[in-house]
Amino acid sequence: MADNGDDDSAYRIKEGDYVVLKRGDIYKAVQIQPKKKVIFEKQWFFLDNAVGNLYRTTFEIVSGALKLQKPKDSGSSTDAKQGGIDNRNIVDDGKSQKLTRDDIEGLKEQGLKPQEIIQELIKNSSTFGDKTEYAQDKYIKKKKKKYENTVTILKPSCRILAMMYHGREPGKVCHLRYDTLAQMLTLANIHAGSKVLVFETCAGLVLGAVMERMGGYGSVIQMYPGGEPVRAGVENFGFPTHFHDTLHDFPICRVNALLAGTLDTTAKEPTAGGDLKQPDAAAGEEQKQPGAEQQGSPEEQSMETNSAADGVQDLEREEKEKLREAKAQEKKVKMEEKRKKLAAAAALLEGRNADGLVIASRFHPCPVLMGLLKFLSPSRPFVVYSQYKEPLIECYTKLKEQGGAVNIRLTDTWLRHYQVLPNRTHPLLLMSGGGGYILSGMTVAVDRSKPSGSRRAEEPAPKRQKLTDTEG
Asked: PANTHER family given for it (predicted)?
């Protein structure tokens, strides 16, 4: 029975958890913090009352606080209404609704619930009774979306976060759609216990998806451009601490040095000691000069004033020196930690036995792919995503010329949502125009002792022999 309690606690919202707020098709990732105001869809509220409830619970927003939504009645006055035959005689001239905006605001100030406001809108609509049942349902659904103050709290997952980024900020994730991301994880054979290389500029979404699929077992090496790796999307997943122990990072600018064997992982510390000693010597000289003036000065009053001023200056110098030493020590510790991380990642890469490679970046993928393929073992998959097909065509051609890869495929993804309702099942009118392109393949061992030029020359040799035989 204890196991059941532990399982139940895993599905309950706790303080400090990362969650996703949902209203309709709009998502937002936040962290549960006490007395922290959250703004979502032009409304502000606190998430304190959500702690202890199950995920996927729907709350009502009342005066900035969350309250559990009461179960709705199975029957309502709107269900009993009969619809018209068709909508051909309905004219959308904006005059069918008798209530004005001021009247609706007045109803809100009176404390009417969203359902009651919707009922008033229906009563004061001159064309609602003439609409078909389907049109009436669509009208009610539209008004609920506008006036109901509800929010659903979800547990973060790869699919939910991918939908959130693609819906709100698709440029941050290179317009990567969740179905395309699922194909990438499948083609790359991501599983627990594997060693995967990831190069992405999708705000950490692809990296987090790989870590979620691995479940905290194995090694993930993030190859990053620039000074520091970007992991904003990884934080939204809310992984446990042991998940981050499997994550390593390596700068992409040092890949060539690692391949050539010239990578130096020793710490190159600046000579901070010499810089810190110079102010000490200058301070000592300045301290001796006032002493000499005190011995040879005839006026005692000026001597006391100078000594007091020198004492204040000495205290200021000591404080500045302590601050410099603290900063230098902190910088030294950070450099040492960075050096250790670099050495650990380099040790994992030196074996050149990675199990998979995933690339999803706004940079040109061809040089990155050719450099990172050398770290994969034979018979290992690689996947490259791009919003456009032209860079992947160049990668395809390069792989064919260079060799070392088989089963190379360049595909595009297409997705269409369907509305499934009685007597009105049809594709949705609005859909994503494209889901990007994927280049996938499998590495193989290549005999580099024989040059590629000689292999090409051997192919047409039998054909030339046949031609000479026929001529003779």
From this structure: TRANSLATION INITIATION FACTOR EIF3-RELATED, TRNA (ADENINE(58)-N(1))-METHYLTRANSFERASE NON-CATALYTIC SUBUNIT TRM6
